[in-house]
Amino acid sequence: MKIILTATLATWCWIASSSVSAQSPDPPIDSDATWRPARAEEVKAQIFAWFATEKADSAVRAKADAIWANLPAQASEDDLLTRLVQTFSLVDPNAAKLTALCSEPRDQLVIPPQTWLADGDAPPLLTNNMRLFYARWLVHESLYDEALDQLLGLSLKNVVAPASLLFYQSVVHHALLNKESGLKSIDELLQEAEASPRRYVALARLMREDLKGLEDDTLDHIARRMGDIRRRLDLGRAGSKVRSVEDGVIESLDKLIKKLEEQQKQQQCSGANSIQSSSPAKDSRLIRGKGPGNVTKKNIGSESGWGDLPPKQREESMQQIGRDFPAHYRDVIEQYFRRLAAEGSEE
Q: pTM of this prediction?
């Protein structure tokens, strides 16, 4: 299940970043929705209002017009985010460098810092949407911690792709095994399933079922964290974060081993205390008791010779016993009669 889900995540995340102009528009949402997709014309108006403040020359303005030409009335949020980023890149050098970085697979261990996204100098329309665009690329590169840094603090109202924000938050939390945060993002996305791309909804439901069944310190949980350690090491990460995860795995393994040992001890004690005879003793062996073999004496009268049989009848009885019971029973019975005779002679 985990392998299939991971492969599906990788596939859909790649599709999410590609052009989606050929997809059918998302269905309309109810008026009481907690969030809604951005309207294409609203986004276009915002970007050109910002563009006007940049005092771009006519050549740059023509490029911007070309980017937003033939804009569908119900353009997908991925389409809107892509056009927005391309427009930012026309006039902002930082946005242009970041867009170029995210246009190709990662070819270096250390990613250039993007401190300008948080310094507050650029307008929120630019920084919020560039952070989402950057986080999406980081997820594709399996840099989940870095992606989470970009996604935290973003508001659904301040990006043109709110469903993408919730989806990639869910993917990151799922990958990092942040169960509660992941379920929160997934549930918020699924609350407006009709407003979200179908691919997001389908995968979000898979992630929700997977996270709901995840329990701390189980073998599954430990195995996933070990996989996360392997991912970090493959990325060249070997710092305090990796060591912290490794220490957590060792602690969980100790807990699991101790728990299994306690369960084994309990089973052994329970088995020892529950050993009881469930069937009569077999005839093939003697029951060895610790008692003296005495019986309670009864008052059976004072006449002599009680219990004695005539020799012929006694021999017939012993032969019958020999036929019906194993040989050692005959010896036991003979011993019993001899003891009984001895006790009678003593009185």
A: 0.68
Instruction: Please compute, for residue 35, the number of CA atoms within 13 A of its CA located in the half-sphere on the CB side.
Output: 23
Tens digit of pLDDT for each residue in 178-203? Answer: 999 999 999 999 999 988 899 999 99
pLDDT tens-digit series, residues 291-323: 555 656 555 555 555 455 666 666 666 666 555
Q: Report pLDDT for 297.
A: 58
The listed range with the strongest mean pLDDT (46-55, 162-171, 334-343) is 162-171
Q: For the chain, what is the HEC assignment?
A: CHHHHHHHHHHHHHHHHCCCCCCCCCCCCCCCCCCCCCCHHHHHHHHHHHHHHCCCCHHHHHHHHHHCCCCCCCCCHHHHHHHHHHHHHHHCHHHHHHHHHCCCCCCCCCCCCCHHHCCCCCCHHHHHHHHHHHHHHHHHCCCHHHHHHHHCCCCHHHCCCHHHHHHHHHHHHHHCCCHHHHHHHHHHHHHCHHHCCHHHHHHHHHHHHHHHCCCCCCHHHHHHHHHHHHHHHHCCCCCHHHHHHHHHHHHHHHHHHHHHHHHHHHHHHHHHHCCCCCCCCCCCCCCCCCCCCCCCCCCCCCCCCCCCCCHHHHHHHHHHHHHHCCHHHHHHHHHHHHHHHHHHHHC
> Degrees (nearest 5) of the Cα angle 11, 13, 18?
95
Q: What is the pLDDT of residues 259-285, one digit of tens each?
A: 888 888 888 887 666 655 555 555 555
Q: How many residues does this entry show for the chain?
A: 347
